[in-house]
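Input for the complex:
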Amino acid sequence: MTALVGRGMSRRNLFAHAARLAAGVTVFAAAPACAFNPLPALPTRDMPPAEARIAWLRLRPDGRVQLLLPRQEMGQGISVGLRQIVAEELAEYLNGELERVEVVLPDTAAIAPVKSTVGSDSMKDFAAPVARAAALLREHLARGGSATELHDTGQPVTLRSLRAGGRHVGQGHPTERIADIVTGAPSLYAGDIRLPGMLFGLVLPADAELPALSPGLRPVELSDGRRGLLSDHAGPLHAASFDRSAAQRAMPDLDIDAALQRGRLEHRLRSDTVEAGAGWTLDRRYDIPFAAHAQIEPRAAVAQWHSRDAAVQLEVWTGTQDAFFVRETLARQFGLSADRVLVHACRIGGGFGARTIVRQELEAALLAQAAGRPVKVQWSRAAEFADGFHRPPSSHRIRARVSPDGRITDWWHGFCSGHVIFTSAAMPRWMQAVTSFIKDPGVARGALPPYAAGRMRVEFSDIRLPVDTGPWRGLGAGPNGYAIESAIDELAQLAGQDPLRFRLANLDPQHGRLKACLEAVRDLSGWNTTAPSGTGRGIACGIYKETSYAAVVAEVQVAGDGAPRVTHLWCAQDSGLVINPDQVRAQIEGNLLWGLGMVLTECLPIEGGRVAAYTFADYPIPTMDAMPAIDIALIEPPGTLPSGAGETAMVAVAAIANAIAATTGGRVLTLPYQPHSAA
Amino acid sequence: MQITVNGRPAEIPDERGGDPLLWVLRETLGLTGTKFGCGQGLCGACMVHLDGAAVRSCQISAGEAAGHSITTIEGLAGETLHPVQQAWIAESVPQCGYCQAGQIMSAAALLREIPRPDDAAIDAAMAGNLCRCGTYQRIRKAIHRAAGQPS
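Predicted:
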């Protein structure tokens, strides 16, 4: 575990840390607003030691067990899944009742630091440690021990929960707090927190003109040099509007062909020599725009300062994917030791990678410091578009050649993208410069196709853009998967082969699990039967982070005006052992919807180098009436452990694009799809 | 001014009359079940009932609600949960849950108006309630369930 404190950090150490970034760990820095943080906190953390892990469980006097959740809950269902694992291990001590396990979203004092809740890693990384902690507690209790004497010395222990067919594991329980959600119970989300004497505040963007001040709005100077507004009431604050700078910023054109003309691309993932030779079977370009997270909860935080001699000086409530990163950032900002900052992690109203930076928490703390009272910050929807970070645009060219018998002999994929992990949203400029020679692992995600090719070259450049970019659900896997699976599909067509059979024939033989997904979705969708008249079908598949597999078939109907309607989606996913099938299905349903949005509606408008979206009208996301019928098959190979379920089925984006191509005869080369503009 | 909220009279200071009802509910009255998603009348997270009809509380002022009867998510249940709330649990609808109060209020208003809606009626009534997590098909199933009909 490394929380860097800047002074004295040598360049060599910095390069060593930067090199760790290439291993695929998520790295962010504190908000660049403050002049006094020479080195950012890096929220890359190892699993805490064994003694800290058994402390995730508390045995209560009434015999119930409390699970202090070592993850953040954003609707992905990790709370209920880990609860099921604990209940399975401790069944005989709980009368077999799931209700006797209570899940608590902990604060930063309650558990040792854990890594961010990102990457669909929660079940993959935490199922076994949580199971072990619960199993140790079980066997300790069986020997008559008291909970306070429990130690983990590495002793062997039998795990019951990490296999299919348990009493709790394998059951489809609904999300934690469902009863509170449907009844509007208080304090579920950060914006619901109310404290005595609390004010409402916002921090003005640096380039904003101070608005005309209505009664009840007062300006305030913040200790980091910025300006804020405070109000006794929420309404007047939300009504305050201010003009931002309209100064144009140069937006580099993300154009893969122009980038290639300028010289070789910076980073190589595969380096075989792939030459034009006698010509390409396929030579296509794909262009993908910016996209917003568009989570329904605009970010919010409440901060309260306590007296200088209090044990905790700064207390914050927030919905964040990393409460410890928030603590580290605030501690550094205000010159406090970490133990004097307490962060309460609330349920998040939609994460999707957006809640990985520290913004509203710092704003609330600065405003509360200036006000001498607790302050709630609630970002507006317009601020989410203007001041958040977004999925970067990317531009791809794929050139490939197939042999007469339909085998891919050459595959070249070059692309350029804005940053994902090494993002200006979170890194000061000098750190971006240092990391510029390292492949951005987020941009690279999903760029290696699951197919065998005689010769393969995959290379990319990442480019700094004036609009902040960063991790969006799936990271590069959505855009890269879309380009790859569109190209493969067209290659199949050019080779005169069925797109499913072509994929199966060209799959790298090591990917038996992906083959099983393709075969399962073939059967689920009736791929080999004729599509209803007036519709077309498309297929796509992919592997997420080498451990989670999905194949999707889409059926699309195109109206007279060319507007496509997705009528059906079928998905077969293998994300290993399924702790909670209902939650895994829910994640797939979400991914299918995100794929639909990517193809049909989502494009973040940019003007003059700035985001030009202010409302959902400027950035439409799919609505109820766009929802197709959905069928899902979960494949659970015996003996596997859980892998990530939250981002794999995003390959639906290509299935839908391929279905549109099958229906209209024209390939979808830019997103979102515009009728009559396809090639 | 006085607004009847969940069956009880609530006294609202006159100075709050111009504020959107959403903020008066959440911060003046402490009823935080109604959510802020955009404040621009587009996401539906702030849906409440005004005299039984579904309205976006970010789009009406507290003053406009004066003299009327407002029901929020906190007031939907009687002695038992509303059939829509029960159906939401039975169908395991929510993921993050943030949009769901608004979804439920829209669905409850729909079922009062059309007790056995078909899919087209559901689409029309619910298209103004956004969900980013992707729970739409579960919402549809839950509405059919609450209406006592097969989905």
